[in-house]
Amino acid sequence: MKPLIRPARLVPGARVAVVAPSGPVVEERLQTGLDILRGWDLDPVVAPHVLDRHPEFPYLAGTDADRAADFQAAWCDPDTAAVFCARGGYGSQRMTDLLDWDALRAAGPKVLLGFSDITALHEAFAARLGLVTLHGPMASAVDFLKNARAQEHLRATLFEPEKVLTIESTGRGVLVPGRARGVTLGGCVSLLAAELGTPRARSGAAGGLLLIEDIGEEAYRLDRILTQLLRAGWLDSVAGIALGSWKHCGPYEALRAVFADRLGGLGVPVVEDFGFGHCEGALTIPFGVMAELDAEAGTLTLDEPALA
Fold first, then answer.
1. Of 152, 207, 213, 227, which is most buried by a Cβ count within 10 Å?
2. Which residues are catalytic?
C-alpha cells in the first residue's frame, strides 16, 4: 500500500461545495454549518438537491441520480476547491457507480470531507482516483455544529495541516501495545465489510494503518463484521489498528471482548478510544497518508501534512 496524492490545502476565500450523497439533511442544521464555514472565510455553495427527499425512501436525500449529479457537478466545477458532505446516514453506495470516474479524475485533486456512510466514497476515491481524503466532521452534523474542538481540528487540517502532523488520541486505551507504520485507511467498519466483492473494491488492508469505528452495531454484529473481514483475508498483513467511537453499540466491556478476540490475534498494535467518528469533538483523520501509530502514546504521526 502506497501513499496517495494529496490535494492542496484550502486558502481564505476558497469555494467549497456542500453535497448530500447519503441521508436527508435538516435545513436549520445546514444553515448553521454554512455560517461556521463562512466564518472561516470560505465560500460554501450548496448543491441543488441537498435538501431533497427521495419520493419513496425517506432515508435518502433525493434520488440516486440527483445525488450523483450533484456530486459530480460539484467535483468537476473548476472553481471548487473542496467537496464537503452535509451528512452521512445511508446512500453513498447507491450512487457511487453512477459517477463518471474519468471525469472526476480529469477534474484533478480536491479535498473530499465526510465520514460515516461516506466511507464508501473514501474507499472509491482511494481505489479509483488514488486521492487522499479527510474522514472528519460534516457540515450539518450536530457534533460539528456544537463542538469547538472538532471545528478547530478540522479547520487546522484544512488550512494549516503542518500544525496537526501528530494527531493525539482523546482516550488512552491500549488493546495491544506497540508501534506500526503504514498508510491510513478506514471508516465505518460495517461499510468496509459491505464493500467486499463489489467492483474495484480495495483488495485488503495489507500494509495499512486501519482506523475503524461505527454506530448502532451491537457486539454480535461487530463480531460478524470483523469475522467476515478476517475470513475474506481483508485484514491479512494489516500493520496496525486504531479503534474510534462506538456510539449506540452497547456496553464497551462487551465490545472490547469482541475486539480482543477478533483483532488481538493479528499480532499488531491496537489502540482504543482514539476519538474519531461518531463522538463528541471528533478528530479529523486523513486517509491515504503514511504515518506511524504508537498505541501506548495514543498518537498517529503523519510523515507529511495531510494536504499539500
1. 213
2. 116, 213, 278
